[in-house]
# Entry
Amino acid sequence: MKIIQRIDSSPRQAELLFEALKNHPGCFTDVWLNTAYGYPKNEDHFKTADYYSGLAEKFRSKGINVSLQLSNTIGHGTYMAIRDCSGLVHPGSPVRKIVGHDGKVCEFGFCWNDPFFRSYITEHVAYYVKKVRPAELWIDDDLRATNHAPVNFGCFCESCMADFNRRNSSDYTREELVAEFLHGDISLREKFIGFIREGLADFVTDICRAVHENCPDTVVCLQNGANGPYTGPDLAHLFDAMLKTTGHAPMYRAGAGTYDDHDPNEIIAKAVNLEFQHSKLPSYVTRKCPEIENLPNTASGKTMTGTALETAVDLAAGATDISYAMLGSIPEDFDFYLKGFEIFAAQRPYWERLAGVSARSVHGGITYAHTKVPHLRPLRPEDDLYSFNFEHYGCFHFMQRWGIPVGYAPREKGVNLLHPWPAGQMSDRELEELLSQSVITDGETVNLLAARGFDLGVRAEPLPELDCLRARELFTSHPANDVGSREYASSFFAPGPANHYALTALPESAEPLGRYAHDPKLVTDAVITTPRGGRWAIIGYSPWKYTVPTFQRERFAKIADYIAPGAVSSRVLSPVQAHALVRVDRETGKTLALSVLNCTVEPWENVKLLIRNPQVESFTLITQYDGQTALLPEKTEDGFVLTLPRLSPWTLGTVFCG
# Structure
């Protein structure tokens, strides 16, 4: 496992880092040196690289690996104006600037297809890697076709337009191409996305060639975000170019930031974002190294304890390595940062255990259904590039505190959670495949599918407004309702939409789960068998509420188990608020670990967990601050019940199976 610090490369900071390493052995393993931020003349890049050569040797002499961050490729946007950009931006410069879909030009962002621009980049990349000999070269996240302020979507410069038209025997203007991209033939959209991906991949190939020819051992890696469907479904075009050119499988640093501790729930949202991005990686990209971005990293922003919590949660969510930008600026006395190094060194054994599990596992809970081909979805007449570039990937916020794990890795015999928002983005083929699987969904989605031509043999009728106000659900005697309560009244005070549907025209084989109290003839929820043999639980009464009584949470878990036995491999049983992250072996499906985050302000005492199908029947609890404890399991027909002795507020603990 790598613990990486991005540093400002000053001699003073290097000495402070050596002191931290001496006082807290193991607090970090690698450093990243940044190439010059901006676009200075290459002669200035060469001077920086010469200095880095000596600094790199000092770090390596202390047992610390050295890598480089390529700080600029296409450009971060207009704010680069405050940096030295004289290498590309000067009177008479032949460089092509990136042009947006609306004709706007970024004066400090450049067309990735421009040979002059590529030559400038590859010349200094070659010199940097020759002098520094980095373990990795990390390409920063401006290697993208979007978000180069003021350009939002590119590149539509004259040369790119002419090249695209020549390849496709067309004569589109920029305006015509954008209109066709959005609302014309999908095949044209595919062609333009392919054109963008090919150009970016060629640019990356040039960078990788410059690296490999000058330092063959250097691994080229990517910092980026799941860019959205404007450039296709994933970043495979970039990773493929890296692997093919260098022979090394790249690492990935998923983009997502939580910059302070003001709302620690953002740590959970970030972990969900990371899981989504990781789910889109090629199989050969196995090293996942998110960055903890504390900037500006002051005592009134992200605490070192919060930094450690974010680290542990990200590793429990599937990361194998971790990096930090906490030293990108150091406005506090260095003692503030030393506290972080002390915590990092103390928690490193726990982190390494989490990273080791992540390296050979996938998510093992409920699967969140979303489209894998977002770039092919049809659009409404009013949709523009902004709405097209948005993906619905995180609509299960109501479950993030229920202690029931939800993630993105599909499981052969698992259950899918289908929210209406991503359902609206899915292709007909994807929806057809779901009809043969186990699914939990709602009445709104039933209607959406019906409008798309998918007949489930059910209709969902929205309740009149007056009936919505007084609606209560009476549970039937169905086995999935064995939760200790026979009635549920959704609270107006609970966040989340109050969708109330009555399920009608049900087939005879349908299994009603509940009825409306004001009119028991109206079915609230039911399990049906689809025309393709899938088991679907349709929840018509307020399925997406965030705050519910524990019996309703238990009922949800039992419904999942009823339609797909064993689907919820592990979870929290006690009536507490918890974010649960379960990892199962990629090959065997055996449970390796269950991590739980106490996302409340109260300490936990004797909280019970359920673990099913463990790798071995011995269990060890490790928490961030309480060390290691052997847990004695209670074996039941349903699995193994374990009791956590204690877990402090906003702290992560993990039960390892073995």
Summary: The first helix runs from residue 11 to 23. The CA atoms of residues 459 and 513 lie 16 Å apart. The chain has a mean pLDDT of 94. The chain has 16 helices and 33 strands.
